[in-house]
Amino acid sequence: MDSQKELPMKWGESYATPPSFRDRLFDKAFRGMAYIFTTLTIVLLAYILFEIGGKAIPAMQKYGLNLLVSTQWDVNQNIFGILPEIWGTLYSALFALVVGGVFGVAIAIFLTQDFLPHKIEIVLKNIIEMLAAIPSVVYGLWGIFVLIPIIRPFANFLHAYFGWVPFFGTELSGPGLFPGALVLSIMILPTVAAVSQDAFRAIPYKTKEAVYGMGATRWEAILRVMLPTASGGIFGALVLGFGRALGETMALAMLVGNSNQISLSLFSPANTLAALLALNFPEAGTTEVEVLMFAAIVLLVITLVVNVVGQLIINYSQPGGAKR
Amino acid sequence: MKVLKNVVGFIFTFALLVPSVALADVNLVGSGASFPAPLYTTWFKTFSRENSGVQVSYQSKGSGAGIRDFQNHVVDFGASDAAMSAEEISKVAEGVQLLPMTAGEIVLSYNLKGVKELKLPREAYSKIYLGEITKWNDPIIAKANPGVKLPDENITVVARADSSGTTFNFTQHLAAINKEFKDKVGSGKTVDWPLGDHLVKSPKNDGVAATIMQTPGAIGYIEFGYAKMTKLPMASLENKAGKFVAPGLAGGQAALANVTLPENMIVFVTDPEGADSYPMVTYTWMLFYKTYQDKEKLEWIHKLIDYCLFKGQAISDKAGYIPLPETVVKKVSEAAKTIQ
Q1: Which residue of A158, A249, B6, B127 has the smallest Cβ count within 10 Å?
Q2: CB–CB of A76 and B191 under 8 A?
Q3: pTM of the full predicted structure?
Q4: Residues of B with Cβ-Cβ distance to A283 under 8 angstroms
Q5: Going by C-beta distance under 8 Å and a sequence separation of 6 or more, which residues neighbour residue A155?
Q6: Chain B interface includes A285 (CB < 8 A)
Q7: What is the pLDDT of residues B203-255, one digit of tens each?
Q8: Mean pLDDT across the stretch A271-286?
């Protein structure tokens, strides 16, 4: 169970042996490879930016920041604005982050803090990770045929009695922000749960022993010690999940309603950047392609900013988190 | 021995697989409209099977992508249900011959419990898509449907989320019958619907069909074949002559019979004349270059066109499309001769 209990000795080695020539060569080769792949990743990202950016330049010159603040999308009159899409992307991803985050972390606690026998833990962990293997389109179809009919009466009840709350301001006719974001939260669940579990498992066994040794109850231990200790990793999990939610395409394209409007209501149809790109690209003309490239850059920047900000928060708020 | 058996088995399997590819000396590649895709793929599969030596493949990418592929010479032929604009044609150096290959109907399907038949006056459905009629029991709809119990329910309008030839033809029709629609919305492969919360957009024909099916109170436009396949109810629409016509072969053929095909083969049937005509009918085109360098390819292209125009039309109806009237077939076949 615990890796620190004994260190295995192999082939009669002693701890004092200096690294052999082979070891050093291997180290060097490995380091070199790591450098090459890191550089390649950066080059690839730069190349993607260059490619998309190059194609987006005409649209940037023509529309500039206007594109970001205007709300109309009319190809026939060459009027383009992606504010509703930016809004929808952030709104749906945030909603998914709250729902998926709460459930993901709860699952991680449940599966790592000795609530269950070890074997069952492993089975459940694998089942949750299998959610990640389900294709996006299947989630979309499931949303249309199963989820929407289930949540419609519930949503329309909320609208009928709590319609004055802006979040319930419209009826849910079918596709809309709510079903889209709900499916999104299920899609980010495996990421959040898996990474948070790793964070919990990374807590040294000694810490746990010490906490219980002090006479803390299980929930005191979890809430006061385990959760804060793992918070860096959990935060990383949430950032990863948020990034995934921002970029998710097909399921949202099928569920979100693709309507160009900004509304606080969870039940009204909305749109996201990724869905806009996926659905308009195939038949776009020259001008529209440039605008879509611009929109793609915006999505890329949003994702990048989220990741960088997340990383910074981890680094500065958690001195322990930075070392991980 | 067992190993040998396996090896022989392998070789045998491959021997069976390879010839079907290797024997095709000519590969014809096309891409474009998704509207006629189910029909085209059936045609091409049968054609390739009946003629050894040629393999025709088609990718349903959408009309816009088809035109772009065609302009970039990455395909041997394209397909589009919005034809090609003069500007697009001018970008193809060797010239373009458009040939209408089949025609289809756009229908309005709806989801209303207990309402099996619905008549929609032209004023009603154009105003629904303008956002001016928002309830099912609107007097304009009720007046055309005496005896039908229409609910006091919001209309959820479903439109295509992707850019599409179906939207192009649908909005052209709406613009033709309603001046306000023409001024306010216009027509195109995507338009800016003035509908707000009552509008839901779904990708592709099957996406729209699924959304209508799942949404009580919904109405949406789809290709006839898709509505037939999913057994969605279709509204009878009022035509130019003021008669309500249900979607189907008879109404479609009547509409096409009242339209003459011009020299360049491009005509949009925005609002057909005739008492029996179904109002929303559209041709869909294949795009060919005027000249082909490869003589063998050219020969097969002519054979393919002939196959689609004559033998192919027989199965159009079953797939939910309108077979071309005989006069049209004759005209198209004449035009095909200019491809050299």
Answers
A1: B6
A2: yes
A3: 0.79
A4: 62-65, 162-164, 189-190
A5: A168, A171, A172, A178, A266, A267
A6: yes
A7: 888 889 999 998 999 999 999 988 988 899 999 999 999 999 999 989 999 99
A8: 85
Q: Are strands B77-80 and B199-202 parallel, antiparallel or unpaired?
A: unpaired
Sort out which chain B residues have CB atoms less than 8 A from A76's CB and list them.
186-188, 190-192
The set of residues, in sequence order, having a beta carbon less than 8 Å from that of A97 and lying 6+ positions away, is A185, A188, A238, A241, A242, A245
Q: Is the ipTM of this complex over 0.85?
A: no
Contacts of B23 (CB under 8 A, 6+ apart): B52, B53
Cβ–Cβ of A282/B62 closer than 8 Å?
A: yes
Looking at residue A47, what is its pLDDT? 93
Q: How far apart are CA A87 and CA A261, in angstroms?
A: 9
Phi, psi of A57 (to 5 degrees): -55, -50
Beta strands in chain B (DSSP E): 26-32, 54-60, 77-80, 96-110, 119-120, 156-160, 199-202, 218-223, 236-238, 244-245, 281-289
A144 touches B at CB < 8 Å: yes
B198 and chain A in contact, CB less than 8 A: yes
Q: Specify the pLDDT at position A324.
A: 44
CB B338 within 8 A of CB B264: no
